[in-house]
Amino acid sequence: MSCTTARGPVVRSRTLGPVTPTDDQGAHPLVAIGFDRARVEETVAAGWAPGLAARVVRIDRGWATLQGTRKARRVPLRECPQIVVGDWLVPDGLGSLQRLGRRSLLVRRSVSGRDEPQHMAANVDVVLVTWALDTRVGSSRLKDMLALARDSGAVPVLVLSKVDTSDSGEGLLVELGDELEGVEVVTTSAVTGEGLDRLRELTTARTVVLLGASGAGKSTLTNVLLGADAQETADVGRTGEGRHTTTRRELLPLPGGGAIIDTPGIRAASTWDDPDEEEGPSPFPDMDELAEECRFSDCAHDGTPGCALDRAVAGGDLDPARRRDYLAYLAGHVAHVEARAAADREGRRERNRRHRP
Ligand SMILES: Nc1nc2c(ncn2[C@@H]2O[C@H](COP(=O)(O)OP(=O)(O)OP(=O)(O)O)[C@@H](O)[C@H]2O)c(=O)[nH]1
Ligand SMILES: [Mg+2]
Ligand SMILES: [Zn+2]
């Protein structure tokens, strides 16, 4: 099975419309996690069967998990390299999965601008930028995260967590100033329950993603909103640094409709070259960019019609040896990602051993 991504535009919508619950909300598993009327129309207009739609709910170690109407299944990421958690896919009846247009896209850029942007999640309605009030580091990281949330096309909300441990962050809000324009601020405590009802209101029947440093309390809030201890949480160290407990992005259905995506902590907004993140930057960013121009996103780059790599080789713009290296990398990518994940797990275990008193 191959996976072709229709390159739909990112539709920008900054304001949250009212939630209009339908009778079948919650009854149909895909309606419950965001497959709304507009999606049905989009699918039908393309001549595909909306009943076969699936949402990307998890990406890890070279595999994507797709939630369909009745069951979930896994496909090798190699076959759909450009999808992210939150994408909607529909089979086109010709053996390929087509990606529906993205309403929003959370993209992390490197500060140097050298590396390819990293896509984090798609079709998100609300970004909960989570910042623990007892955080002692400066707020520039928070500003970066707010910008990232704003650029996604989703509605950013600033969650100031752990208010039971600190003051309510007036100074921080003053410091943020204009960065907060149009951003609702919710102060929360998982201990006293403050702010949690407002978070439930903001997230019900939406697709929500949590963004923030390790230890900010993202998984704790995820569990509150899920009403279940689905996500592992861990104490922060003496320096206030979190332990990078969450290691992959996963979309989980919310009990009242909607879905929540917990994410690994962002260590520094500067780079994503972080061993605790599930995917590092590609070693062939230029080739990835060139491959974006292939007619088919699942192009095998070996004579497939419309292949941009073939074109570049034929035109003398690309060394055939470099194409060979790139193809070898793509073929080995799944194995490589799995090996790195194993090394990361070992590293994490080692760090946890050292952190233990
Ligand atoms: N006092 C207090 N502690 C909290 C609150 N929310 C979370 N914590 C604690 O903060 C620690 C880190 O919480 P997590 O939910 O694991 O943080 P995270 O953002 O998911 O961290 P990573 O998965 O590492 O990115 C845990 O020990 C939580 O119990 C809160 O509102 N008040
Ligand atoms: Mg977590
Ligand atoms: Zn190609």
How would you characterize the overall build of this protein?
The protein has 357 residues and is an alpha/beta fold. The protein folds into three domains: 2-99, no CATH class; 105-262, 3-Layer(aba) Sandwich (Rossmann fold), CATH 3.40.50.300; 285-355, Ribonucleotide Reductase Protein R1, domain 1 (Orthogonal Bundle), CATH 1.10.40. The chain has helices at residues 29-32, 37-45, 140-151, 170-176, 196-203, 218-226, 285-291, 308-314, 320-355, and strands spanning 2-4, 54-60, 63-67, 72-76, 88-91, 96-99, 105-108, 118-122, 126-132, 155-161, 184-187, 207-212, 250-253, 259-262. A six-stranded mixed β-sheet has the order 1-6-5-2-3-4, with no helix packed on it. A six-stranded mixed β-sheet has the order 11-10-9-12-14-13, with helices on both faces. It has a two-stranded antiparallel ribbon with strand order 7-8. The longest helix has 36 residues, at 320-355. Residues 7-13, 20-26 and 268-280 have low confidence and may be disordered.
